[in-house]
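TASK: fixed-backbone design
INPUT:
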């Protein structure tokens, strides 16, 4: 009987943990917005487009101990540059966290799908959303979308 009670208690705790992970930002009553970027990645010297550059928006930069893994596809909201160098990526940030960072976030351009074909240096650029185009109507705690075209982003060759 004691084993059944322990198993039942563990199952209940596990169910509560899994359901708590599914609660969205709206449930916590925290205002947030979508921050969306697009542009084109090109070679700094030749001005040719660069394919397969992972584009990632961060709220906080990874520490040196936290490597940026390129061994798997990017997170769903991030993306790879296409053959013509064009990219788009987005992330959800709370409005208070963006105010704390003066509406700027670091964007990483990581070259080399699965870390095999790297030809250009990984680059981090701070992106300022202060003058970004705002779209969308508020719904619950989602306040809209900030869209910013970064234009051409130049990456240097590794060699």
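OUTPUT:
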């Amino acid at each position: 009987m004691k084993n059944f009670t322990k198993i039942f208690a563990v199952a209940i705790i596990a169910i509560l943990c899994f359901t708590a992970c599914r609660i969205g930002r709206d449930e916590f009553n925290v205002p947030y917005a979508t921050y969306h970027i697009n542009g084109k990645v090109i070679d700094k010297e030749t001005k040719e487009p660069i394919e397969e550059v992972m584009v990632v928006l961060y709220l906080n930069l990874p520490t040196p101990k936290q490597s940026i893994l390129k061994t798997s596809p990017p997170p769903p909201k991030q993306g790879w540059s296409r053959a013509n160098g064009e990219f788009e990526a987005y992330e959800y940030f709370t409005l208070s966290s963006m105010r704390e960072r003066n509406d700027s976030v670091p964007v990483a351009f990581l070259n080399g799908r699965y870390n095999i074909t790297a030809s250009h240096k990984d680059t981090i650029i701070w992106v300022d959303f202060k003058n970004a185009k705002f779209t969308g109507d508020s719904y619950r705690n989602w306040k809209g979308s900030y869209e910013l075209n970064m234009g051409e982003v130049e990456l240097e060759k590794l060699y």
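COMMENT: The longest helix spans residues 2-21.
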